[in-house]
Design a protein that fits this description.
The complex is a heterotrimer of chains A (631), B (166) and C (368). Chain A has 631 residues and is an alpha+beta fold. Chain A is built from 15 helices and 20 strands. In chain A, strands 6, 11, 12, 13, 14, 17, 18 and 19 form an 8-stranded antiparallel β-sheet that branches. In chain A, strands 1, 2, 7, 8, 9, 10 and 20 form a 7-stranded mixed β-sheet that branches. In chain A, strands 3-16-15 form a 3-stranded mixed β-sheet. Chain A starts with 12 loop residues before the first helix and ends with a helix. Chain B has 166 residues and is an all-alpha fold. Helices cover 57% and strands 2% of the residues of chain B. The longest helix of chain B has 27 residues. Chain B starts with a helix and ends with a helix. Chain C has 10 helices and 4 strands, in the order ααααββαββααααα. In chain C, the strands form 2 sheets. In chain C, strands 1-2 form a two-stranded antiparallel ribbon. Classes of the chains: A alpha+beta (631), B mainly alpha (166), C mainly alpha (368). Chains A and B meet through α3, α11 and α12 of A and α1, α5, β2, α7 and α8 of B.
Chain lengths: 631, 166, 368
C-alpha cells in the first residue's frame, strides 16, 4: 500500500484555520481512518487531528518502532512506541497495587483511583492502538445484543446482530480477516449462505492441536439445567493469510501488506513472528495506517502533533462550533501553539477513555450524567500449567485458537460468560516467560550448557496458558472523570479512572478458575497458577484470590441508546445534545459480550459513515419550503 | 586472543558450539558489553581461571566439578559467568546482584540493558527450543502447525577449540 | 482468426520443433531461473542485520519472485505433461556462471552485496532485444569452466542474445508445437490440472501464480517471468503495475525510488540509502573443497549443502504432483536463511578478512 509522499505534512495550523471541513475527526486510529475513508470517497473534505507525531508512513519508519522494541530490555506492550512528553500514554508498567485509603496512583498517565488497579493501555501513535493490538477479531453473538432482554443484565442495545451483520462483513473486508467460515458458525452466529471470510483461517498451532486432543468433546456443566460441550476452535484473525478464491462471489481477495511511500511487497502473509502484540514486524497484521494510506490520496488533511484540548459549543443550540487543539512543534518539548479547527460535523474517534476525557475536560457532561460512566474493559483471568509433553509453545501468532463455547448460554443470568484463548506465547503474560524461566534455571537452579538447554525445552516448550476473557457489564460507578489537579505536560486534564470488577464478572472468574482445573486435569497438565496479593490487579472474591488484568478493550463511556435519558448517543453514534457531534468507537457500546471490541466498533463506525454521507447530502439540498407550499 | 577465549568459555556454559555462537554475529559485541561492565581485569581473571583449571576433557563429571570450582561456584566470577549465559540467551545484560557490587565494586555500567537491538534477535533462548525471538527471525506461514524442530545438542560439551587445542 | 492468418503471424522458433526440444528448453529455463537464487540469497544475507533496510527489501522481493518464476516454468512443464526434476547433479550451476547480455557475456557470482553485485543483478534482469532475427542466437565464446546459462540446450555452441530472447524462443516453440499438434488433431496441453501449483500453494508477495492449462495461459506464465524481470514494453512496471526487477535494482544505483509515472532512468520517489560497508565480506564462489577439512565451518557448509539438496528434492516433489508441499517451502526457506546467516558470520578459516559462504553447488565428490 503506497502512502502518498508528503501527505503527513501537507497542511498546517494556518491552513486548517482557513477551512471549514465537511468533517473534522479527532484521532487517526481505526475509527477515524475508516470514517475519513468513507467520507472522502464521497468527495467530502475531512480533517484528521492526530495527537501523535506523524511522518509519512514508510518501511524504515516502521522499522524504527521495531528496532526500539528489539533494543529495550523491558518488552511491555508499548515497548516499540516512543514515550513523548506532549502525548503521554498509559503503560502496564505504571500499574501499582492500590492499598485502601492510599489515595490514587498518579504515577502513570492514567490517574487510578481504584479500588481496582488496571493495566489497560492504548497507544497514541498514528494508527492508534491497532499498531499494538493482537487482531483477534470476533463478532459479538446475536444474544450479546439481547443480554438485557433475555437475561436481565447490562444495558439494552438500540440495534441487533441482524442490523450489524452486513457491516461486520464490510469491516471484515476492510481489516482483512482470515478465518474458515465452517469454524465460525456457533451460538447463533450467522452469515449469508454463500459468505466466506476474505482469507482462509490460519492453521491451528501444534499447541492448539495438543490441547484439542485432550479436551475436544468434553461436556461442561455450567448450571443446574445446562451442559455445554466444548472444543478448541480457531479464532478469526485480522492478519493476512491465504486469500480465499471463493470470497466475494468468486472474485477473491487481495491482501493489503506493508505501507510505505514506495512500492514494497511485504506483509502480504503472516510469517508467524509470535509478536502480534506489541508489533507485527512485517505488517501482515492490519493497522489503521493501511486505511489511512488509501484515504490520504484524497481530500483529507492530516494535522499531526495536534492534541485536542477543548470542544467548543454554541450555548444556544448545543452545536459544536470548533475544536481547540494544542500543537507542539517538537515532540521532546511541551511548548505549543493553540489552533482551532472548524467543520460542519465533528467526530471524536480517540477511544472510550479519551473521548470521555475530552468531553468532560470541555465541560460537556450530558444532562443524564452518563459521559465517562459505564467504563468497561474485558477482565482477563490467566491460568497456567505445564503439559506432560513438548507442545512447541512459543511458536505461531500470539493466539490461533481457543474455547468459545462458553461465550453464551442461560448461565448468563447469573454470571459472566467468557472466551478462552490458548496462548501460543506460553506463560509470557502471567510470568514473563520464557525470560523468567531462563533466569530461574540459570540463577537459581545453576544450570548451564546442555543441562540448561534440556531444562528450557522441558520447562518452556510444555507451557500452556489459558487467558479467560470475561465479560464486564456496564456499571455507573466504573468511570472516567477529570480533575484539574491532574494534568499532562501540555495542560490537558488526564483521565481519572475509578473501577471495581463487578461481582457478576467475578462469578465468571471463579467459574473459569474451576474450569481450568478440570481442563488441566484432562490434559494431565500440572497447574502452576498462582495469584500474588502483592501485585496489582489482585481481587478477593468468595474467599479466594484472583488476579484480574486489563484487556485494552475500552468501552461504554458514551453509550448508545434510544433516548437521551438513558444514553449519550443514538444508534448512529450521534450525540443527543450536540447534533453535529458524533462520539464513535467502543465508548458507544452498551455491552461488550465476549468479543474483542474492534470489529463491533468498526461496524458501528461504518454505520456512522453511511449516516454522515446521507446527513451531509441532506444538508446540501436546497431549502424547498416555498415549493412545498406551492404544491 | 581474548575473543577466542571468551567464545570458548561461552560455548561451554551455553551448550552451543563456537560456530553457533560466532554465527549469531554477537561475539564481539558481547565481549565489549561484559568488558564495559566488569572491566578487562575481572573478565581476564574469569577466562584465565577457565583455561587454567578446567582441563579434564575425558570425564564429564570431573570437568563439571572443575568448572564449578574455578568459575561458577566462585563468589566473584560465578555471577558474571551466569550473566554471560543470560546475555547469549536473551541479548540482555542483567544487573549484577547488589551483594556482588557491594563486595566487588561498582560496575562500569549500571542496570539491566540490551547489548544492542540485534542482540535480542539472536537470543539462544528461542533457538534452543526451536522457536524464534518474538518479532524476529520469522519461521514462515503455517510453520507453527508442526511439532517444533528442536536443534540437537553438539556431540560434546567441551568446546571444539579446547578439544583440538586450536 | 483463421488458421491462415495465424500462420502468417507466426514467427517460427529457431530450434524447437519437437516435444523433446521443448523439454530441453524448459529444463534449461528451470536451471536459469534457479541459478539466480543463490547469488541473490547470498547478497541478501551478507547484509549486516539492522543495516541496509532498503537493499534488504529490494533483494528479498526479487529472490522470492525468482522462486515464483521457477514455479511458473514448472506449471508450464506440467501442463504439457513433462516431469520436473531439480535434483540432477548439475542442476545447480557452477559459479561463476555465464549469462548473456547482448553481444557480450558476463559472469554471475555468489558474492557479498557490493557495487559489483548490483551491476551483476542489473545484468541479469536487463531488458535486451536482439537487433534482428539472425542475432538472436549467437556463437558462444569459449569461457572456461562455469556453467553457461541461456545457452541453446540443442546446440551448446550457441547461446541467446539475452534471457528475453531465450524466453522468446520458448514462446515461439509453444505456439509452434501447439499449432503442429492441432494440425494433427492432437492436444498439446494434456497435463493433469491437479499437478498445477495454484495461488493457494505459492505466495510470492508480488505477482500471482498462473495456472497453465492451454496455450494462452502458458504464454501468460512466460510473459510474467520476463515482465517481472524487465518490465512491460520498455516501461518500468510489469503488466500488473509492479516495478520490474531491473528498475528495482537500478534504484540502488540512482539513490531514489521509482514511483508511478516515472520514466526509465529518472526515479522521482523518496531517496534510499545504501551502505556498502555494512556487509559481511563473504568468500566469492566458494566451493566445499576450499574449506579446510575437519573445520567446523567446513562441516557447516557441507551440512548446508546437503540441506539445500533436500530442499530441491522437496520442491521437486511439489512440482511433481504434490503442489501442497510447496506450502512447506516457505518455512524451509526461512530455515535456510538461518543456516546461511550462521555461515556468513563465521570467518573463513585461514583467509583473514574473508567470511564463510554457503555452497549451493553440489560438490564433485558427492556426485554419483
Amino acid at each position: 500500500m503506497i502512502f502518498p509522499e508528503g501527505a503527513a505534512a501537507r497542511t498546517d495550523t494556518t491552513d486548517v484555520a482557513g477551512r471549514v471541513y465537511d468533517v473534522v475527526i479527532v484521532g487517526a486510529g481505526i475509527s477515524g481512518a475508516i470514517i475519513a475513508d468513507r467520507l472522502s470517497r464521497e468527495g467530502r473534505s475531512v480533517l484528521l487531528l492526530e495527537a501523535a507525531p506523524a511522518d509519512d508512513l514508510t518501511i524504515s519508519g516502521y522499522e524504527t518502532y521495531l528496532n526500539r522494541f528489539y533494543g529495550t530490555a523491558m518488552k511491555d506492550n508499548q515497548a516499540p512506541y516512543p514515550v513523548l512528553p506532549p502525548v503521554p500514554m498509559p503503560r502496564s508498567t505504571d500499574a501499582r497495587p492500590l492499598p485502601p485509603g492510599g489515595g490514587p496512583n498518579t504515577g502513570g498517565y492514567l490517574v487510578q483511583d481504584g479500588p481496582h488497579s488496571t493495566d489497560t493501555t492504548y497507544t497514541r501513535v498514528l494508527g492508534g492502538t491497532t499498531l499494538h493490538w493482537e487482531a483477534k477479531i470476533l463478532r459479538m453473538l446475536p444474544e450479546d445484543f439481547e443480554l438485557s432482554r433475555r437475561y436481565g443484565q447490562g444495558l439494552p442495545w438500540p440495534l441487533g446482530y441482524d442490523e450489524l451483520e452486513p457491516l461486520y462483513r464490510e469491516a471484515e473486508r476492510e481489516i482483512g480477516v482470515s478465518a474458515d467460515i465452517e469454524d465460525q458458525r456457533y451460538l447463533g452466529l450467522h452469515y449469508p449462505p454463500d459468505y466466506v471470510y476474505p482469507m482462509r483461517g490460519l492453521p491451528a498451532s501444534f499447541l492448539d492441536q495438543t490441547v484439542a486432543k485432550g479436551i475436544d468433546g468434553t461436556s461442561i456443566r455450567v448450571g443446574d439445567d445446562e451442559e455445554i460441550p466444548i472444543r478448541v476452535r480457531p479464532f478469526p484473525q485480522g492478519r493476512n493469510g491465504i486469500p480465499n478464491p471463493a470470497y466475494d462471489a468468486g472474485r477473491g481477495f487481495t491482501p493489503v501488506g506493508a505501507v510505505s511511500t514506495h512500492q514494497v511487497e511485504e506483509g502480504g502473509r503472516c510469517q508467524g513472528n509470535n509478536n502480534c502484540v506489541p508489533i507485527c514486524p512485517v505488517q501482515a497484521k492490519y493497522h489503521a495506517g493501511k486505511t489511512l494510506a488509501r484515504t490520504l490520496h484524497r481530500d483529507v488533511d492530516l494535522l499531526a502533533q495536534a492534541v485536542a484540548y477543548k470542544v467548543h459549543t454554541d450555548p444556544e443550540n448545543g452545536r459544536v462550533t470548533r475544536i481547540e487543539y494544542r500543537r507542539y512543534q517538537d515532540p521532546q518539548s511541551t511548548a505549543y501553539e493553540t489552533g482551532f479547527a472548524q467543520g460542519r460535523t465533528y467526530v471524536l474517534a480517540t477511544n472510550a477513555i479519551e473521548n470521555a476525557r475530552l468531553m468532560l475536560a470541555s465541560g460537556l457532561q450530558d444532562r443524564a450524567d452518563l459521559i465517562g460512566r459505564n467504563l468497561m474493559d474485558h477482565a482477563y483471568l490467566l491460568t497456567w500449567a505445564r503439559l506432560p509433553e513438548v507442545a512447541g509453545t512459543m511458536r505461531g501468532t500470539n493466539c490461533t485458537s481457543g474455547i468459545t463455547d462458553l461465550r453464551g448460554g442461560r448461565f448468563r443470568r447469573d454470571r459472566a460468560s467468557f472466551s478462552i484463548d490458548i496462548h501460543n506465547d506460553g506463560w509470557g503474560w502471567a510470568t514473563g516467560a520464557p525470560v523468567t524461566d531462563l533466569l530461574r534455571i540459570v540463577d537459581q537452579d545453576h544450570q548451564y550448557g546442555f543441562g540448561l538447554r534440556r531444562s528450557l525445552v522441558d520447562q518452556v516448550s510444555t507451557q500452556l496458558l489459558l487467558a479467560h476473557m470475561i465479560e464486564v457489564l456496564p456499571d455507573r460507578d466504573n468511570r472516567v472523570t477529570v480533575d484539574p489537579r491532574y494534568r499532562d505536560e501540555l495542560g490537558n486534564m488526564r483521565p481519572v479512572i475509578s473501577f471495581k470488577v463487578p461481582d457478576y464478572t467475578m462469578r465468571g472468574a471463579a467459574f473459569a478458575r474451576d474450569l481450568s482445573r478440570q481442563l488441566f486435569g484432562k490434559l494431565g497438565a500440572e497447574d502452576h497458577t498462582g495469584y500474588d496479593p502483592a501485585e496489582y490487579g489482585y481481587v478477593e472474591f468468595g474467599g479466594d484470590g484472583y488476579r484480574i488484568l486489563g484487556g485494552n478493550h475500552l468501552a461504554g463511556t458514551h453509550v448508545m441508546g434510544t433516548s437521551p435519558a438513558t444514553s449519550v448517543v443514538d444508534d448512529h453514534q450521534r450525540s443527543w445534545e450536540h447534533e453535529n457531534l458524533y462520539l464513535v468507537g467502543g465508548g458507544s457500546m452498551p455491552t461488550i459480550g465476549t468479543a474483542n471490541t474492534t470489529l463491533t466498533s468498526t461496524a458501528l463506525c461504518l454505520r456512522t459513515a453511511k449516516h454522515l454521507i446521507q446527513e451531509l447530502r441532506r444538508q446540501d439540498r436546497p431549502v424547498t419550503l416555498a415549493t412545498i407550499g406551492a404544491r | 586472543m581474548i575473543l577466542d577465549d571468551f567464545v570458548a568459555f561461552s560455548s561451554e556454559v551455553t551448550g552451543f558450539t563456537e560456530f553457533d555462537l560466532i554465527g549469531t554475529g554477537q561475539a564481539e559485541s558481547y565481549l565489549r558489553t561484559v568488558t564495559e561492565v566488569v572491566g578487562e581485569r575481572t573478565l581476564a581473571d574469569l577466562l584465565d581461571a577457565y583455561r587454567a583449571r578446567v582441563t579434564d576433557t575425558g570425564d564429564e563429571q570431573a570437568r563439571a566439578g572443575q568448572l564449578t570450582g574455578a568459575v561458577l561456584g566462585d563468589d566473584r566470577l560465578g555471577p558474571i559467568a551466569r550473566n554471560i549465559i543470560k546475555l547469549w540467551y536473551s541479548g540482555t545484560w542483567f544487573a549484577l546482584p547488589d551483594d556482588w557490587t557491594g563486595r566487588f565494586g561498582a560496575p562500569g555500567r549500571e542496570g539491566t540493558f540490551n547489548a544492542s537491538p540485534q542482540a535480542y534477535t539472536q537470543g539462544l533462548l528461542w533457538y534452543a527450543i526451536g522457536a524464534n525471538p518474538p518479532g524476529a527471525r520469522a519461521p514462515g506461514y503455517g510453520s507453527w502447525a508442526s511439532p517444533p524442530l528442536i536443534p540437537a545438542l553438539p556431540p560434546s560439551p567441551v568446546p571444539q577449540s579446547v578439544r583440538t587445542g586450536s | 482468426m483463421t488458421p491462415h492468418t495465424l500462420l502468417a503471424e507466426r514467427r517460427l522458433p529457431a530450434e524447437i520443433d519437437t516435444m523433446a526440444e521443448l523439454e530441453a528448453y524448459l529444463n534449461a529455463a528451470l536451471r536459469l531461473e534457479h541459478a539466480t537464487i543463490p547469488p541473490y540469497l547470498t547478497a541478501l544475507y551478507s547484509l549486516h542485520p539492522g543495516a541496509n533496510s532498503d537493499a534488504r527489501h529490494l533483494i528479498r522481493v526479487v529472490a522470492v519472485e525468482e522462486m515464483l518464476h521457477l514455479t511458473l516454468v514448472a506449471n508450464v512443464m506440467n501442463a504439457v505433461g513433462l516431469r520436473v526434476d531439480l535434483t540432477a547433479d548439475d542442476f545447480v550451476p557452477r559459479y561463476p556462471a555465464h549469462l548473456p547480455s547482448g553481444e557480450i557475456d558476463f559472469l554471475v557470482s555468489v558474492q557479498p552485496f557490493s557495487q559489483a553485485a548490483v551491476t551483476t543483478f542489473l545484468n541479469i534482469e536487463r531488458p535486451a532485444k536482439a537487433p534482428n532475427e539472425s542475432s538472436r542466437l549467437l556463437p558462444r565464446p569459449d569461457l572456461g569452466a562455469g556453467t553457461v546459462l541461456a545457452a541453446s540446450p540443442i546446440d551448446p555452441s550457441r547461446r541467446f542474445y539475452s534471457i528475453g530472447e531465450f524466453y522468446e524462443e520458448i514462446d515461439r516453440g509453444l505456439r509452434h508445437l501447439d499449432h503442429l499438434y492441432r494440425a494433427e488433431g492432437r492436444e498439446l496441453f494434456t497435463g493433469d490440472v491437479a499437478r498445477q501449483v495454484t495461488a493457494e500453494y505459492f505466495y510470492s508477495g508480488g505477482g500471482e501464480i498462473v495456472v497453465v492449462h492451454d496455450l494462452a495461459s502458458a504464454l501468460k506464465a512466460l510473459e510474467l517471468i520476463t515482465e517481472q524481470g524487465e518490465g512491460l514494453g520498455g516501461g518500468i512496471y510489469d503488466g500488473e503495475g509492479e516495478l520490474s526487477h531491473y528498475y528495482r535494482f537500478q534504484q540502488l544505483q540512482l539513490g531514489h525510488y521509482y514511483q508511478q509515472g516515472d520514466v526509465p532512468g529518472r526515479p522521482s520517489g523518496p531517496p534510499l540509502d545504501v551502505d556498502f560497508t555494512a556487509v559481511y565480506p563473504v568468500a566469492i564462489d566458494a566451493a566445499l573443497a576450499d574449506y579446510p577439512a575437519g573445520s567446523p565451518v567446513r562441516e557447516a557448509a557441507q551440512r548446508f549443502n546437503g540441506t539445500y539438496g533436500d530442499f530441491l528434492a522437496h520442491l521437486t516433489a511439489a512440482y511433481d504432483g504434490e503442489p501442497r508441499k510447496l506450502l512447506e517451502a516457505v518455512p524451509w526457506m526461512f530455515r535456510l536463511r538461518d543456516d546461511i546467516e550462521h555461515l556468513i558470520r563465521n570467518p573463513f578459516p585461514g583467509r583473514p578478512g574473508v567470511h564463510a559462504s554457503p555452497v549451493f553447488t553440489r560438490a564433485p565428490e558427492e556426485r554419483s
